[in-house]
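Give me the fold.
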Amino acid sequence: MRFLVLTASAGVSDQLADRACQLVNGDLNRLSDSAVEIAFSGGVPNDFLADATVDINIVPAQNRRKKLLIADMDSTMIPVECIDELADFAGVKDQVSEITERAMRGELNFEDSINERVALLAGLSETVLEQVYAERISLNPGAKTLVQTMNKLGAMTALVSGGFVFFTSRVAGETGFQMNQANTLIVKDGILTGKVGMPILGQQAKLETLNALCKTGGYTPADVMAVGDGANDRSMIEAAGLGVAYHAKQALADIADARLYHSDLTALLSLQGIAESEYA
């Protein structure tokens, strides 16, 4: 048996849910206004609900609820790339954003790209970090509910980012992530030097963090849900029992187990069969 999960921030109507249920000859269960699950054992038509503005994902019934949530930050838990916002204050946003976009599409080596981008921030006052956080950083819809519900249900939650600890520590504090890991901007006399602390946390480091958390917690990769948006998340998405691409670049969407384009982050709870009544 498998579960067909329909999610959408704008809501999943009863009419659409009933139509989907009939098409797969399944058993319908509403999880929230924005999510339904349908237990079924047959196939799914090729053009299944092609006209509907909802996310349609299929997950196995076995080991559905995950014990470890590992998540990217930039453009996943928050709607922006922090380095691009810093670059705006340095007057080089267009230049840095172009490099960021290419790196997230997998066209550039991440480690090289972050060194190149941070070098363009040299001379920026450290005070800008706090200004960017206060003025430019917000949580994506559903982020806090996702993390706090996973915590409530006994899961480990980890925020791992190719961005910077200054921001991950604050986002983790706002959402409730139990741990966070990211890169460090080198500052001297209150000024960014244009250098990043070594070693650089990139794609391989995210995978290593996932494996280390599994070992420490006694989990298997099948117990893990990972979510991200770019090529830098590819290895942890592939390793996780449920890898989710959230408004992702094609390089990541192609290899993910589930893809979300119309839903907020509470959809990650719906994929696990967690109803709104269980939310923190």
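The radius of gyration is 19 Å.
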